[in-house]
From TrEMBL:
Family from the record: Belongs to the LDH2/MDH2 oxidoreductase family.
Protein name: Lactate dehydrogenase
Source species of the chain: Pseudomonas tohonis
Skewed-composition ranges (Low complexity): 313-328
Cleaved signal peptide residues: none
Keyword Oxidoreductase applies: yes
């Protein structure tokens, strides 16, 4: 179903906020989630805009998420901030821990934030953009569910395991990328399945481990990493750094926890940031050319400003969507 509907960004935000609150989510959580969904839709990344609303509702109804959870912030070491999300969503946990992360990075030169015991279903780029808005360089990563086969494998071992980076630039939008270590975000495969569209070879395998262009068969089988062994290595690193290293779940453990309930992954996140300099601000003034399948609807700040004026056009099928996965986004601009 390819029909589009037109909504203002205020309508997108109101729809996401209402969907969360009428299903029992606390106001702080609901606003954090609505803000992120609106940004995804504003940036025309349909797999991480309104398409995420029903997975949020579904996870609430699974009973695995605490919709009223209040994050707890502590320090593991002078440069390490830990937030226990208390089985709530990661977005409020990040907002709660971000001020201390920024303070420590400015004081010590580098700092890390780890979020444990959380559910996360949204893109990472809004999180590193929040770090860049403070004039800091940000890096974030998280495991997910074991949907992705390592290079040469036939069964899911890794999550889509996204990695996001933001570099602030004076007088310009930050240089930002956010991509899954899988060949594509899982949400994009689910969108293809809902619309009855084939997917390119290289995105995934069927249940027998054979390369497939059937989106539904791949959802029943396993996704593939990007770049062969290179994507596998990055996925493994993220499993270790944002899972085992901080004492939380790997993607395989997260999938077992889910138990088929279809809830969003219980998982951990790690973010690091460093102060930038005026010389650093002048760097990265290029615009990357080309993207391949890891790029998710690459927006520009100009397009985002246009969406604020004229609204957005999400697929009408987003009203019935149910998805989870990680974003792929890579853009920058050289104009002020």
């Amino acid at each position: 179903m390819n029909d589009l509907i037109n909504l203002s960004l205020d309508q997108v935000h109101a729809l996401a906020l209402r969907a969360a609150t009428v299903n029992g989510m606390g106001e702080d959580h609901a606003r954090a989630i609505a803000d992120t969904i609106t940004r995804g839709q504003r940036d025309e990344c349909h797999s991480h805009g309104l398409y995420r609303v029903l997975v949020c509702v579904h996870s609430l109804r699974s009973g695995k998420v605490d919709p009223q959870a209040q994050p707890r912030v502590s320090r593991l070491a002078p440069a390490i901030v830990r937030v226990d999300a208390q089985r709530g969503y990661s977005l409020l946990a990040l907002q709660t821990g971000l001020p201390l992360l920024v303070e420590q990075a400015r004081e010590l030169g580098v700092a890390a934030l780890v979020i444990r015991n959380c559910f996360h279903f949204s893109a990472l780029w809004p999180e590193v953009e929040a770090i860049a808005a403070e004039g800091l360089v940000g890096l974030a990563m998280t495991p997910s569910h074991a949907w992705v086969a390592p290079e040469g494998g036939r069964q899911g071992v890794f999550g889509t395991n996204p990695l996001a980076f933001a570099w602030p630039r004076e007088g310009r939008e930050p240089f930002v990328f956010d991509f899954a270590t899988s060949a594509i975000a899982r949400g994009d495969i689910e969108l293809h399945a809902r619309q009855g569209k084939p997917i390119p070879l290289g995105w995934g395998l069927d249940a027998e481990g054979r390369p497939s262009t059937d989106a539904r068969a791949v959802l029943e089988g396993a996704m593939q990493t990007f770049g062969g062994h290179k994507g596998s290595a990055l996925a493994a690193m993220i499993e270790l750094m944002a899972g085992a290293l901080i004492g939380d779940l790997t993607s395989a453990e997260s999938l077992a926890f889910d138990g088929g309930a279809g809830a969003t992954p219980l998982r951990s996140m790690a973010s690091c940031c460093w102060p930038s300099t005026r010389r650093a601000f002048s760097a990265a003034s290029w615009r990357p050319a080309g993207s391949g399948p890891r790029r998710c609807s690459p927006p520009s700040p100009t397009r985002a400003r246009g969406c604020r004026r004229s609204g957005v056009s999400p697929p009408a099928s987003a009203a019935n969507a149910k998805a989870s996965g990680s974003a792929g986004r890579y853009w920058t601009t050289s104009s002020a």
